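Weekend entry, working from home. Most of the wet-lab plans are on hold until the incubator is repaired, so I used the time to fold the two sequences that have been sitting in the queue since the last round of cloning. Logging both here for the record. First:
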Amino acid sequence: MVLTRQRKGTTSWHLQPERILTRHFEQRGTFIKKLVLERAKKAGFDAGNGPDAATHVLASDCSGLGSDCMAMKRLGLTCSHLFASDVSVKSRRFINANFSPKHLVANALKRLDCGSMTGYSCGFPCQPFSRLNGRRKAWADKRTRLFDVALKTISTKEPAWAVLENVKGLAKYYPQVRAKIRAQGLTKKYVTLVAPMCPRDLLKEHARRPRLYFLMVRRDVAVKADLVHFVRLALSDICKSMPKPLALESYWLSKTGPSVSKTRHQKAVKKNEGFQPKWVKRHAKLKKNIRSDHIMKAKLLAAPSADLGLTPRESGALQIEWARRGCPNTFVADVSQNAGRVPWGISGEVPTLSCSGKIVSFDSSTPNTLKLVSAAEKLQLQGVDLSRVTIPKGMTELDMAKLAGNAMHVDIMALAMMLAMTMVNWNKYKLGSRMRTDKTDKH
């Protein structure tokens, strides 16, 4: 992997000599599109229904790194980017460098009317609903106002389709969600389907990322069919027919690459005489319930862990979790969490990526394979093709890790958007657009 200059102030990464992942991503996008359209044909959808024939105008809020735009390109659909918004300066710089939206704002709450759109997406903040957040406040959290903004945008601009995304913990608050959708008048305007999707379960990808996707299609242009049955069968087809991904090692960059660096953002440890952190007692308690031979084997990871820049707590958590699982050959764990609740995966499975997570991967059958997954590798696990994106100058490892942790998986986003677009009868949509234009001209 080498660095090449694209234009002043930006840097692009290119895989050489073969862009294996690039071809892999393109093939999966084509496969998703093909399976969904085949299922639509079997369901007897109107012949005029087809996203390829439409001119798409895309808009998004809480845009992250622009997974919606990447998904459109992966599906082979052309679109113009109307507007994007994100509170993160780094996200806005990344979006502007790669997709150049007509309008780019920091605060969606203060966004003005930007024009009409064909499709809309929003990955509104998940912290108020996440089960990993012990202090979640649900609707008392001010960040939930962005959900109201998304619903209001859909209600006023009336795009043909919309996709909203959030964590599965939102399912606990379905009554309030339905009430908010009804309050905006969207129950009469839109058909709304909620589909739980995870790249690991549906697409056989390595990274877990279970999420709820709200698929919304305007009723007056929706295909006249049983859409719930269609989505259910389409997801079943995807799950059964999707080819296996490349080996996990294919997502790792060269050790001499620009982004493979040790992330030494460790907290200072108190050095008072006689002081003992809480995790020491916790680790000792957990070790009592683990086989002694597994504990002895796990101690071999101590020295390599220190070389990666892991703290004693993180190194101990890695050893304990590996030993608790019976010392499997392949193991991936997020050691930023305390021992006993460390997210982990075996056989190429990668736990859900977070902004502050420290993912460690190793294969015990091969010596010296313990590695700390870099931010660039996390982006690739999220379906981002690094050879096709531009990294703004000055983007640090921590900045990119936050981008990866907040991102929607590109291939799952492509699937959700393809399902929504396929449920639109584009002949009706074009006719409706012409009729509205004529009325406006007469007035």
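Second, folded right after the first finished:
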Amino acid sequence: SALFNFQSLLLVILLMICTCTYVRAVIPRLIDRNKEGFLGLFWMSARIGERLSPYVAIACVVMAGTLLVQ
């Protein structure tokens, strides 16, 4: 159902980026061995989380604020 609600889709993407970045920091072999194919999405999400971490953090705070207001 997150595909039909834009806010839910953004929340799922943000959570995936944050989770993949955390998993790569704790167990890098798990994420780094799958750089291609469907599982490569997790590697790309981890890279986005590492390189754009201030923007991802701001997006998480904004998303939390909007969820609290609703």
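Plan for Monday: verify the second prediction. Residues 3-69 form one domain.
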